[in-house]
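Reading a protein record of the kind used here takes only a little practice. To see the layout at work, look at the sequence and tokens printed below.
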Amino acid sequence: MVVFRPMGVLWVIVAVMGALSGVAEAGPFTAKTSQGELARRVVDRPLVLPKGWLEVATAVDSKTSQTYRGSDGGLREQPDGMSWTHSRLWLEVRQGFSDRVTLYGRVPWVRSSLRPAGGSEITTLAMGDAHTGLVVQPMVGRPGNFAVSVDLKAPSGVEWPSDSGGPANTTSFLTGTGVTNLSVLGHTKWAIKGVVSMAADVGYVRKFPGIVGYVVADEGYGNGVINPGDEWVVNGDITAMAGSMVSLSGQVNLRRMGATTIGINGSEGRQMSAVRHTGGDWVDAGLSLTVEPNAHWGIELSASQDLKGGDTRTFAHLGLEELSPQPGRRFGTKVVARW
């Protein structure tokens, strides 16, 4: 069994960042004459990273759940002693490609763990689905910021059960969905200089059908097809400065998910049917504290809680949090270095 220790990972993050700080004295990490100016305060920054800046971040977040949501979205207790833990270690990179374009990539390692009421703990540690994309802000330096982002989520390849148990497999969990997502979002941000900023995102997530090992036909054929419902996404954020180095933020995130369909590629073409209770609205709220001693370093602490959701049982035994996010509080830490 692989043991994932968030505090141990945090010390590794600090060590890596310390090594990077030594490298920052020379080579590609030194200041460039063509490098844009990065605003000292978070609330004054645009939606893109200034030209020539490179940002590397590592983040850890974890959620433990002892409840689930039924078909009506209501919370229900798990059997006594049962708990589900979902943790992620992210590596994130952003590059200020130009004054108006930022490129980025995010790759997670996922640890999923179920502690049943009786018996041994079941744990899986593997790579999750990776994200790459770009953010384009046509006009920079205006009182109101507006940008558009395009995000591609690619399957990690870890979407097949580890044995012949098929969708009933409970000897390990899946850390990838096997589905490609293409998201297009509009972003806006308004700020009172040096004091507070308000931001909002609105967008659409197109999910393309994928052939996965966790959908099985009646005859036992394992290469079934899944087509998760597309999503509408709305996010809101208010950030206030609590001094020159510290900022406090509050977030609200809404996902409206369409129904998931599953099926097979048969002799008469693709045959799909809807899965009950897989659509609906999901609402999360969170708080974060960011400390930046200077423009090159920062650390963020965050916490979030689900407020509303749909049925979380459908894909729960596979550990697919994107499709069946379990209720609970999520805590996170993020360390950022910029050059």
User: Anything to note?
Assistant: The domain at 6-338 is CATH 2.40.160.40 (Porin). The longest helix spans residues 6-23.
